Each structure stands twice: as structure tokens, then as C-alpha cells.
Amino acid sequence: MSLTSEELNYLIWRYLQESGKEVSALALQEESRVLEFESKFGERVPIGTLVNFVQKGILYAESELMVRYDRESMSLDPGLNARDFNLAQALEVDKERVPELKAVQRFALEDQVNAGTHSPGIDSSDKIGGEDSSKFIKTLHESLRLPQSTVCQWNPKNTSILSWGGPESTATIATFEISDGKPRVLQETKCQHPLGISASTGKLTNDITCLEWSPSGESIVTGVENGELRLWTSDGKLQNVFNFHKSGITTIKWNEDSTHFLTCDVENVAIVWNSLTGTALQHISLKESGATESLGVDASWVGPEKFVIPGLQGAIALCGIGESRPLGKLNGHTKTITALDYNYETKMLLSGSDDTTLRVWRSGALSSSNCFMGNTLGITSAFWLDQDRVISTSFDGSVRVWSQSTNALLGLSMVDGIPIFCGSLSPDKRIFAIGKMDGEVCLYHIGKLLELLNDKSINDSTHPTPIPICGDYQHNIEGSYVNGIAWNASSTHLSISYSSSDTELIFVG
């Protein structure tokens, strides 16, 4: 009598299917051979087989109380038949016969690790990006709490300057002093927009919807609900005001040399601005007749004077500064564009969409060279890891790493089917942070994953490699989801914006 691990995987997969846990079943399907068993034995395995087998196992454990090893009956406890023998009691019976295996540091909390319960050779004080950090999941703690924000961004050059924006038409630029990983606010500057009537609610409000630092770190642009944009210096001095947009700003993107920036609003209007003169160089409107939905929530520069924006019917419009019409269209996606990332080294564009696919576009081509499929819900973020590999998150609760050269899924992680709202790759590209609907933030060790993928002796090309998790932070307020994550320039601190609670800073190390 025997039961192989593959057979057990199949029974678990059937149980997940029968229970309606489709996302969890899909994750197991990706990492095992359950489909082979389904085609061979699916019709012969009745519904509820796994639960039936577990119940029989409990009865078997109960029978061990009644019969000795030499098949002689044992005297029964008078109360045995009167009680409901359950799983916990069966495990107690089994523990008396088989020594318990000690799970050293498995699922250990940080305070347990510090108390000396972890295995030798692992120092709980190691940084997450260090060599030994991938051996355990570090429980992260709040370093500093800031006012609620809808968007939060660190200065790309100065690791101690953070800006956030939220209600009451105000963005804040703060300078921190960081000692032993603990930030302390030294100075705060308020960047105020005037109040205005919201087109969506009719109330007197003008919340900050978007802000973006220039690559040089010397300027920042803030955008609000009524479409106004303001340009500020890094110390909070107003430089210019831009008023051509008539609806909420969704995207602000600077070009490489910080001379121009591109803005998009919810009515699918894109404008290119000269940051030095404050003039609008280009106005592109891609409105569909009678349509009210946004074509996309991201844009990207693909050179100093060229950029891409979401187009009609899932297309991506390629535009140039000074051109009244798009230079071309990248056709392939069928729904809203949700993520765009350009690789300046390879000249390739990565795009994600609500149509559940990722696509890679080569310079000069109007059709995609790769189309990555496998997600069941829309893509929420996508980034280049290097010249070949990309990483993405989805509402289906998955994190996936793909190779554009082999068109293969290399890495996979499922987070219990909980939707992932956002993802952020650290500047050193060692850690990838995700924010979930339940308020939890998980950190993935990308550096360790790439080492595993490059090690051919342990890399199984037929199955995706599990992406190592190296850190976890759980928000303690229910009903508040993560709507934004940002790294500082040194990849040591993470800012987290929540839908209905304060902004939090986390020291990663």
C-alpha cells in the first residue's frame, strides 16, 4: 500500500476545484503534474475523495487504540465510544507511536528568532538583501507613521527626501534624518493647490492624484482632481502652474534629461510640457465617442523625444514631440493598458493589460515579439529585471517572472488568491515588493531567484521556480488596502500608502 506525492497533489487539486478555490488550484496545477492524472484517472475518482480518505485515516488511528501489534484486542476506555473521535485526537495517537519531527525555525516569528530558536548560522539581524536573508521570512515593523496619502514618492537622488500627496489639495515634501534605520522628520514643506469643485462628486475638493520627481531629483510635479499641475523645486518652492487639463491627472512621466514631462488625465488627454519654459508643446486627445472609461493608467518615454500612451481598443500609441498625430500604433492588447516599462539598454518595451496578458515590443516593430499568457485577471504592474527577464503582478494574486528570449515562465508565486494591487522593484533590483487588498506587503528576493535560475544544476526548466519571499509586513487596520508602494534611492526604506489609513515607512535594511 502506497500513495505517491503526485497522487496526493492530484487529490488536493481535486479538492480545491470542488471547493471553488480556482486560483489556488491553478497555482498547484502550474507546479505539478495533476493534469496528467486528470486525463488518466479523472473519471474514476469520485467527488470528495480526499475528505473520504482523511476520514478513513482518522478511523484507522482510532483502531490502533483497540488492537495491539499482535492482533490481540485491548481493553477499551469506557468513555472512548461516547466521544467523537476527531483529527486532533488521531494526531495525538500517532504522536505517541512516532517521534515528532522538530521544525527548527519553520514559521518562526521574528521575536522567536531573536530568542535563539533559529538554526545555527542564520543571523536575524542580517539585511534582507544579504546572502543569508533568503533562508527565513523576516517580519517587518513600522519605522514611522505619516498622514494618509493617495500617492507617495522618494526623491531619486536624495535618499532622505520623501513627498506624498492626499486630501485637502496638499502635497508634502519632507526631509528625514535616518539613524539606525529609524527615520525622523527634520523639515516639512507644504505644496498647496487651490480647492476646486470635483467633477465626479460635486464637492469642494481637489485631492492630489499624482506626483512625480524628475530624474535629476531637482523638481517635482503634482497633479490634482480638477486637472491642475504645479511644478515645484525639491525644497517646495513653486516654479510654474499648468492648467490645460480639465479632469483628474492619472499619469506624470519625465523624460531622461528632465527637460520635458508627459501628463495624462482620466479623459484620455495627453500633454507634453517643456519643464524649462512651462509651455505645452503637444496636446493629444484619444477620446472615443460616448466612452467614459480610461484607455490606460500608465505611459512611458521610449527616448528623449518619443513616448507611448494608451490608445483606442487596447492599442499603444507611439508619439513624438511636436507631432500632431501618433507615429504608429502597437496593436495586440484588447483592453485597458495598465503597465508600461521601457528598457533603455535593449530598446524594448514591456506592456501589461486588463486582458490578462503581458507583451514585449522591439524597437521599430509594430507587433509584439512576445505575449505572456497564464494570468486569469488583469495585470497590475510590470517591470524589467534585466535585459531578458521581466516580473509582473496581477489581480489573480500571482507574481510571475518571464524570459523574453525563451518565452517561458521562470518563476511563480501565488498569494492565496488575494488580489495584488501594486508592485515596486527596488532601485538595486534585488527586492520586489507587492501590496495586497488585505493590506499586507510581501517582499520577494529577486537576487536569490536569479541565482537559482542561473544555477543549471538545480534549475528545472519544465516547472517555474518558486520566488523566495524574504520579508512580510501586515497592516493592523482591517478594510484598508495598499494603493501605493515606493522605494528610496538606496533600497533601504519602503513607503506604503493605504486607502483609508496613515502612510507607513518600513525599514528593509
Strand order of the largest sheet: 1-31-29-28-27
CATH architecture term of the domain at 286-389: Beta Barrel
What does the main sheet amount to?
A: 5 strands, mixed
Q: Bin the helical content.
A: 10-25%
The secondary structure category is: alpha+beta
InterPro entries: Apc4-like_WD40_dom (IPR024977), Ebi-like (IPR045183), LisH (IPR006594), WD40/YVTN_repeat-like_dom_sf (IPR015943), WD40_repeat_dom_sf (IPR036322), WD40_rpt (IPR001680)
Pfam family, one: LisH
GO cellular component, one term: Set3 complex
Organism: Lachancea thermotolerans (strain ATCC 56472 / CBS 6340 / NRRL Y-8284) (Yeast)
State the main characteristics.
alpha+beta, 7 helices, Lipocalin, 5-stranded mixed beta sheet, 509 residues, single chain, globular, Mitochondrial Import Receptor Subunit Tom20, Chain A, 15% helix
Written account of the structure:
Its main location: nucleus. GO terms for molecular function: transcription corepressor activity. Keywords: Nucleus, Repeat, WD repeat. It is found in: Nucleus. InterPro entries: Apc4-like_WD40_dom (IPR024977), Ebi-like (IPR045183), LisH (IPR006594), WD40/YVTN_repeat-like_dom_sf (IPR015943), WD40_repeat_dom_sf (IPR036322), WD40_rpt (IPR001680). The protein has 509 residues and is an alpha+beta fold. Among the domains are: 93 residues, Mitochondrial Import Receptor Subunit Tom20, Chain A, CATH 1.20.960.30; 104 residues, Lipocalin (Beta Barrel), CATH 2.40.128. Helices cover 15% and strands 37% of the residues. It is built from seven helices and 34 strands. Strands 1-31-29-28-27 form a five-stranded mixed sheet. It has a five-stranded mixed sheet with strand order 23-24-25-26-30, sandwiched between helices. Strands 2-34-33-32 form a four-stranded antiparallel sheet, with no helix packed on it. Strand 13 and strand 14 form a beta hairpin. Helix 1 crosses helix 3. The radius of gyration is 27 Å and the shape is globular. About 5% of the residues have low confidence.
